[in-house]
Amino acid sequence: MIRVALLAFTSRPHAIQGAIDAAVFLTHRGAEVYVATDLAAVFPADVLARCSVVAETQFEKFADMVITFGGDGTLLAAARLLIGSDVPIMGVNVGNLGFLAEFPVAQLDEALAVVLSGEYRIVDRTTLTTRVDGDDIYAVNEVLLEKATQSRMIAIRAFVNEHHVADYRADGVIVTTPTGSTAYSLSAGGPIIAPSAHALCLTPISPHTLTLRPLIVQDTSDIRFELPFADMEANLVADGRIVGTIRTGDVVHIRKSEHMVKLVKRADSTYYDLLREKLLWSADATRKT
Description:
The chain is of the alpha/beta class.
């Protein structure tokens, strides 16, 4: 029988309740359920008695699948934990959009029945890597340099495979995967990139030169950022988390990681179905309701 680990954004009551409902549903049908430590602290005693409590960092050892309850941020947190493993992640959305966490909590029983029947597909998604203080940092959506202060723009010198691309005078520059192309990059004017495309995109944030536009490059490229002028400082951000501070003289390399993240998707839908559903892609504005 399948072994499922549950992770939830515990600041949201609906996320906690979704995880509780999932634990009841799955354990009643013979599945082994593992609950993250912080989530276990808010579980009813009778439900918790049917589950095992493990640290999130141990999910890879015990689970065949991880189900997250929250939004895309909760799923991304699980992805960071599972980098380098083959454990797939299923995201249950309890918020508004939920582009990565595409299973709505309102249809939880249906989604869990899919898990038990195995009638789902698993897709591999590209991740990025960079190094900070000797440590590898991974991201599913994007890695970016952004200004460290609200009042001052920065200049970022960008190279692709040692070729000088541009000096961006902007609030920052995003390097996005196809998965992240519908996240921050999209709001900054970047293109939507199909997940099957072997591409990355450099998207400037509020550039001060109108001729600077998003640039798509092969995902085998080595992207290098520098701060070319004295006394400059920028935040290095991975999937919304500040992971380092970059100063003049520092060099940042961003590459496609050797690791993929496995996501659970509906067997009967495609990426383009998701675009239409979540982003109202090609919606008919003339249709009367």
